[in-house]
Amino acid sequence: MEIKSERIQQSIQLAKKGDQNAFRFLLDTYWNDVYGFQLIRTKNENDAEDITIQTFSKAFDKIERFDEQYEFKTWLMTISKNLHIDLVRKRKSSISHKAIQDTDDAIFNVPDDAPSAEDILIQEQNLAKLLKYIKKLKPHYQEVIQLRYFQEMTYEEISGTIEEPINNVKVKLLRAKKLLAEIIKKK
Fold first, then answer.
1. Backbone phi and psi for residue 17, each to the nearest 5 degrees, phi listed first
2. Where's the RNA polymerase sigma factor 70 region 4 type domain (predicted)?
């Protein structure tokens, strides 16, 4: 137990310096704890997985602020709990806003599901722009984005395709999305 604790402390130190192997070790060590915690809270695998990914993303972004007098797992769980609370608040707000809007607009709105020519053109332009941004990523990040969002593969399928562990796929995808968001923000 002492050896694992030392390894965790070393990994935190290395992660603060940007070491990807340290990030991967911390993710592998705590993924099941955070995911299990969220699965109990959300009772939904997709929400639990999304919140877990967001938890690690936020933790890794802010790891230099981690105070080592506290347990790393406790810090992760706190981040995870807060992300879940934010999600619940956002959904409640969205639901109540939608309910009010639905009752006000029900008489006046007649839905037209068919996209207009302008909608189709905008979608094509946005897709072309997004593909241009994706091409600026390193090839291995392009690949996981392509497999996940364009071919709609599961993490397990991607893992088999690129012959890497699932946690590596999750970290790569997380990193790819973050880099893509930064590229888009710059434009």
1. -95, 0
2. 129-180
Cα of 161 vs its chain's centroid, Å: 21
Cβ neighbourhood burial of 97 (10 Å; 0-12, 13-18, 19+): exposed
From the CB of residue 63, how many other CB atoms can be counted at a distance below 10 Å? 19
One-letter amino acid of 92 = K
User: Which residue spans within the chain are E strands per DSSP?
Assistant: none
Q: Which residues contact 77 (CB under 8 A, 6 or more apart)?
A: 33, 34, 37
Write out pLDDT tens, residues 18-71. 888 888 899 989 999 999 999 999 998 888 888 998 899 889 889 999 988 889
Torsion of CA 41, 45, 50, 52, to 10 degrees: 60
How many CB atoms are closer than 10 A to CB 13? 13
Is 83 within 8 Å of 35 (Cβ atoms)?
Answer: no
Closest CA to 39 of 30, 29, 51, 27: 51
Where do the domains of the chain lie, and which CATH numbers do they carry?
1-106 (1.10.1740.10), 115-187 (1.10.10.10)
